[in-house]
């Protein structure tokens, strides 16, 4: 199972919006509504930000939103804040009932 | 509140095995799958497998087949991940995580496993 494809890095200024893409195949992203997104700050465990494509766990800011089209999922962060600077990972369930992660995207808030 | 507390850091020699524990609290242990994920230094997240605490059923990433074992003890709400035939590239932080929906949602604090001769 190959890793999902994410851009290595994205950047934006405070207050702006950014979008991170996550591309898979019909066996994972395209075939299941089980895409999730995680935020990870250095030295910390990941935090679930979006699950099942577009749902936010309680306590997660509505500045974070998720969507999917075909084999590509997206995470959008609006109103960028300095504390959003972190690594972001996507994941998807697969047709083999396994899980696959993306390679990760480093978000820099300029 | 959901909490997962993992065992402490380990230093192992190549060729040996390591067993990491993950004690759950704040919810019904048997009701939610536990995933194991690892992260090598400076690298991304890598999924290893999941265990159903209810049935004991497991599913592993192809890469770890034959080297990983996942078990649980429901009497003490604890899941275990054992990795054998350790190599230097198994040096990583190992996380357990309870699902939220289908995906890892509540994460343990991580356990650093260092493999070095």
Description:
The complex is a heterodimer of chains A (110) and B (117). Chain A is mostly beta strands. Chain A is globular. Chain A has strands at 9-12, 18-23, 36-40, 47-50, 64-69, 72-77, 86-93, 99-101, 105-109. In chain A, 34% of the residues are buried. By secondary structure, chain B is mainly β. Chain B contains no helices and eleven strands. Chain B has strands at 3-6, 10-12, 18-25, 34-39, 45-51, 58-60, 68-73, 78-83, 92-100, 103-107, 111-115. Chain B is globular, with a radius of gyration of 13 Å. The mean pLDDT of chain B is 97. The interface between A and B is medium-sized, with 27 and 24 residues.
What is shown here, in short?
Chain A is mainly β and 110 residues long. Helices cover 0% and strands 43% of the residues of chain A.
Q: By helix and strand content of chain B, what is the structural category?
A: mainly beta
Taking the sheet with the most strands of chain B, its summary is: 7 strands, mixed
Low-confidence stretches of chain A: none
Number of strands of chain A: 9
N to C succession of SSEs of chain A: EEEEEEEEE
Structural class of chain A: mainly beta
Mean pLDDT of chain A: 96
Distinct helical segment count of chain B: 0
- The helix content of chain A is under 10%
- Tally the helices of chain A: 0
Q: Radius of gyration of chain B over alpha carbons?
A: 13 Å
Q: Low-confidence parts of chain B lasting 5 or more residues at pLDDT below 50?
A: none
**What's the overall geometry of chain A?**
globular
Whole-number average pLDDT of chain B? 97
End-to-end distance of chain A, in Å? Answer: 35 Å
How many DSSP E strands of chain B? 11
Strand-residue proportion of chain B: over 45%
Backbone shape of chain B: globular
Q: Greatest interface and its residue counts?
A: A-B, 27 and 24 residues
- Helices and strands of chain B, in order, run as EEEEEEEEEEE
Gyration radius over CA of chain A: 13 Å
């Amino acid at each position: 199972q190959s890793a999902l494809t994410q851009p290595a890095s994205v950047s934006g200024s405070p207050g702006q919006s950014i979008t991170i893409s996550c591309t898979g195949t019909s066996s994972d992203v395209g075939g299941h509504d089980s895409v999730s997104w995680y935020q990870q700050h250095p030295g910390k465990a990941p935090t679930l930000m979006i699950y099942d494509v577009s749902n936010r766990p309680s306590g997660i800011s509505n500045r974070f939103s998720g969507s999917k089209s075909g084999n590509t999922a997206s995470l959008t962060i609006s109103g960028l804040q300095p504390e959003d600077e972190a690594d972001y990972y996507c994941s998807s369930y697969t047709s083999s009932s396994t899980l696959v992660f993306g390679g990760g995207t480093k978000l820099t808030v300029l | 509140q959901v909490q997962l507390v993992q065992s402490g850091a380990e230093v192992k020699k190549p060729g040996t095995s390591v067993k990491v524990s993950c004690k759950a609290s704040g919810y019904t242990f048997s009701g939610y799958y536990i995933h194991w994920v690892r992260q090598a230094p400076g690298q991304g997240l890598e999924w290893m497998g999941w265990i159903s605490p209810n049935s004991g059923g497991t599913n592993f990433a192809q890469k770890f087949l034959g080297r990983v074992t996942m078990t649980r003890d429901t009497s003490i709400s604890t899941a275990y991940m054992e990795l054998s035939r350790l190599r230097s590239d198994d040096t990583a932080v190992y996380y357990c995580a309870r699902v939220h929906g289908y995906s890892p949602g509540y994460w343990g604090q991580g356990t650093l496993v260092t493999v070095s001769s």
